[in-house]
């Protein structure tokens, strides 16, 4: 409603389009559905011709964000696309900046105030970061898991809705000095995923661009890599499907379903990791075959030898002799 106040306009038509009673606006603790929020925002953006709904000092005409997506789609991968999106956003909006940072295995999308947003800070930070997360998911046609979302304001009374807006941990950290910054943290490997959209799919999406675009994505194109890494680096915390799913903030059922959607399975990934670890131990150490079998999770040496022959066509001892010609079986 602040956007209508700023333009001295009547919000009645927008409220009617969203089937919201005017009295609800002033009710403390009143809630609306996601569908109502979509209808309200869509009507207001077009009626006011401002896709920022008042948080941007420079009005963002209807179609501004579609233009940003179109300018980013020709990128070879998500990392380049997001950098373009952030850079181009600075051309149409000058009171906030966006940038992509990579810190080792982690990546971060940073939204920073260039001038204080005041009462519009929460709305701007949530709207813009959620929008960018949705765009990223859409560009790669994949669920993009968030490691953490950091927001530079105190926890609001309606904080219980934030896990729906930003999947994963949400941290409220009020700014005490310097420019306020909001951050989305994610696995940096997502940035290397290719763009899977074209002009035709963009036109289809823009016909109804405002729904909460993250939730429809069940597939995570990085899930197999995340499972593989967890099995390799934290085997003691990934002994069962339930343990592994909890480690990845999923249910066991969702883990199995998403792996199937990617054409994989947990058992195949376990076998792949076992094979990789077994080959590494056989190549780099002189541990007896029995100890290698135990180290990679086999109950006995015979089952390990049988599995290794299935993987390579050779026994572990024969494979080791090829890698270490002077090694004893």
Describe what this molecule looks like in 3D.
The chain has 329 residues and is an alpha+beta fold. It has 4 domains: 1-48; 56-216, no CATH class; 223-257, no CATH class; 268-323, Arc Repressor Mutant, subunit A, CATH 1.10.10. It contains 16 helices and 5 strands. The chain has helices spanning 2-6, 12-17, 22-25, 34-48, 64-72, 78-92, 121-140, 162-165, 199-206, 223-233, 241-247, 252-261, 266-284, 289-295, 301-312, 316-323, and strands at residues 96-103, 106-113, 148-151, 170-172, 181-187. Helix 10 (223-233) packs across helix 13 and helix 11 packs across helix 12 (252-261). 26% of the residues are buried. The model has no long low-confidence stretch (mean pLDDT 88).
Describe the secondary structure blueprint for this structure:
Blueprint: H1 2-6, H2 12-17, H3 22-25, H4 34-48, H5 64-72, H6 78-92, E1 96-103, E2 106-113, H7 121-140, E3 148-151, H8 162-165, E4 170-172, E5 181-187, H9 199-206, H10 223-233, H11 241-247, H12 252-261, H13 266-284, H14 289-295, H15 301-312, H16 316-323
Parallel strand pairs: 3-4
Antiparallel strand pairs: 1-2, 2-5, 3-5
Helix pairs in contact: 5-6, 10-13, 11-12, 14-15
Q: Give a short account of the largest sheet.
A: 5 strands, mixed
Mean pLDDT across all amino acids: 88
Count of discrete domains? 4
Report the sheet-strand fraction.
5-15%
Q: Give the % helix.
A: 40-55%
Number of helices: 16
> What is the CA-based Rg, rounded?
25 Å
